[in-house]
Amino acid sequence: MKPQDSIGLDPINSLCVSTRAGRNLYFRYSCKTSQSALPAMFVRLSSFTILVALVGAATMDKRAAPIDQMVGYATLNGGTTGGAGGSTTTVTTLAALRAAITGATPKIVQISGIITGDGDTIDVGNHTTIVGIGANSGVTGGGFRVKARTNVIFRNLQLSKSPAPTDLIELQTSTNIWVDHNTFTSDLDHDKDFYDGQLDMNHGTDFVTVSWNVFQQHFKCSLVGGSDNTGDEDSGHLRVTYHHNHFFEINSRTPSLRFGTGHIYSNFFDNVLASAVDSRDGAQTLIEDNQFTNVVDPIETTLNGGFAVQRNNVFTNTTVGAIATGTLTTVPYAYTTDAAASVAAIVQASAGAGKVTGL
Questions:
Q1: How far is CA 323 from CA 54, 95, 270, 277, in A?
Q2: Phi–psi pair at 222, nearest 5 degrees
Q3: Beta bridge partners of 140
Q4: Where is it found, in Gene Ontology cellular component terms (predicted)?
């Protein structure tokens, strides 16, 4: 750690390191944690520098957040590995895709080219990785559904224009899902209900990470919690991380979150037309190090009884209204943010299909 770096403790079990490079690194700790389990830190008081020698910590990496690493809630609850260790199948037709992704055995299914759907859902089995080959592989005119399943990964896919009521991806009563480096595309030419969601989660889905995706030209982007009346099954679940996504020309729901817990960091909200992050029905959100540019209602809590903690965000041509302050100030995993002022360039360079450097 260089002298120009700084380190501090959040009063609620969070260690934050701010580096000269403009990165904020967060580590969760317990008040009962022994000193040997925490990093060495400097505490500056007036003209004195007190070195608190706390040894045995992992090295603090000051580089940008890695683009090929799973971070967030999908790493918990045993982790998310998808079809690792299973057979690999390459598909080019809808029938072959449907057949390949069913069942509970580990499997990696590679899509080659764009498959045209039939408007219906494509159901995904347990322990499955679905990955696009190259920069232009995926599905148009249909969408995936993960229903009462676990351990699924979607990566490097072009997903577009699934007519309602089929979402491009729907997660229902499922756990441990990673949605990474995909491009979701619709259009704003049709009525707002012509398409359904680009990425929706409901009925107690849990432990999800949504990272390095592009969501573009859509009315109702990402709904987490399907109804105001599902608190019994959703409360205590719907834990989701959104990081390093590009929301471009979206009308609303980036995301809209009911009842659950959302960690939303280092995203680029770019021309959002009606509302961006909408925390509702008691949901707790931590919104940090994001860039909001030309966004109407960037953080909404007061209309529908949600909560948010917002910190280190940059708002450009964007007005922030009243926010009902929440209690979510730390999360139970390590993560690295990029400084909000750098997020737009970083996300535009590295988010979406065709940008993954390792699968």
A1: 37, 48, 21, 11
A2: -140, 105
A3: 116, 160
A4: extracellular region
Q: Which two tokens mark 40?
A: 């060495």
C-alpha dist (Å) from residue 124 to 108, 142, 143, 210, 240: 12, 13, 10, 17, 20
> Tokens 């471009």 identify what position?
248
- 27's CB contacts (< 8 A; 6+ apart) are 14, 15, 17, 39, 334
Which is the CATH superfamily of the domain at 73-350?
Answer: Single-stranded right-handed beta-helix, Pectin lyase-like (2.160.20.10)
User: Percent helix, strand and coil across the chain, each rounded to 5?
Assistant: 10, 45, 50
Q: What is the CA radius of gyration of the chain?
A: 20
- Domain map (residue ranges) of the chain: 6-52, 73-350
For 45-77, how does the pLDDT look when each residue is reduced to its tens digit (9 = 90+)? Answer: 333 332 323 323 333 333 368 899 999 999 999
Q: So which residues are the catalytic ones?
A: 253
